Amino acid sequence: MLPVNSKILPNPQDVAAQACLIIIAEAAAAIRERKLFRIVLAGGSTPHRTYEMLARMATDWSAWEIFWSDERCLPADHAGRNSRMAHDVWLSRVAIPARLIHPIPAERGAKLAAAEYAANIRDKLPFDLVLLGMGIDGHTASLFATSGDHIAPVLAVHNAPKPPAERVSLNFQTLRTCRHQLVLVTGAEKSPAMFAWQQGANLPIACAARNDAFLLVDAEAGQSTNFMASQL
Ligand code: 6PG
Predict the structure, then answer these.
(1) Which residues form ligand 1's pocket by a CB distance below 6 Å?
(2) What kind of architecture, by CATH, is found in domain 5-218?
């Protein structure tokens, strides 16, 4: 089953614009109530447009605290790093204090980085908002299977089918330990996994996404999925 707050939008630009509005609204509420907004960023390419739009928004950036759902074990400034993409199109352009930006130190190796990040986030839970993407196989973050050892709050991943094989990822429980989640899925290549998710397949995204998550899907990714009319 898909989350109750699922919405299909015409194209990736509309998904990004709606995502940006949700994120800014979540930030305003968190900052109003707790003077801090703790957001977990998704990796991959889908959130690129949303991050670009966020860079142009007006908000109290000094109260934003940034985490990542997962990271690839590459050098810290490698173009393939999830943290590098967010930095280049957004974080380098807004005044978030450096001490509130927490990249996963995946350049230190999966095992050490997972232990360090678990210690770093321990007293930062629950997050206010967790962003999630979805791969063509239904993975999310760097969680590629629903079985296996998911006990540790942050996992060292050694056999990821999506290169690089070595990654670090928050586990399912940690990705769900938040006030709200926002899942972004665009592109025709995602439609089989979207359909499988709606049919109840035991996919990593289905394990990570809470029933009350916001899910924004573009028409191409949602083409095989029968969204209720109210969600169109
Ligand atoms: C990664 C991401 C991964 C991503 C999905 C979707 O490191 O690749 O964390 O989980 O979110 O694979 O990727 P795209 O957004 O590029 O389709």
Answers:
(1) 42-46, 70, 72, 82, 133-135, 139-142, 162
(2) 3-Layer(aba) Sandwich (3.40)
Supply φ then ψ for residue 31, to 5 degrees. Answer: -65, -35
Supply the residue whose CA is at minimum distance from atom 10 of ligand 1. 141
Residue 186 CA, closest ligand 1 atom number: 17
What is the band of 56 on the pLDDT scale with cuts at 50, 70, 90?
A: very high
100 phi and psi angles, rounded to 5 deg: -105, 10
CA–CA separation, 209 vs 5, rounded Å?
A: 11
pTM: 0.97
- The pLDDT of residue 92 is 98
CA–centroid distance, residue 35 to ligand 1 (Å): 30
**Which atom of ligand 1 is found nearest the CA of 142?**
10
Tokens 């972004």, located at residue: 184
Task: Return all residues near 101 (Cβ < 8 A) that are at least 6 apart.
Answer: 65, 66, 91
> Is the pLDDT confidence value at 9 over 80?
yes
Q: For 30-60, what is the HEC assignment?
A: HHHHHCCEEEEECCCCCCHHHHHHHCCCCCC
Nearest CA to ligand 1 atom 4: 44
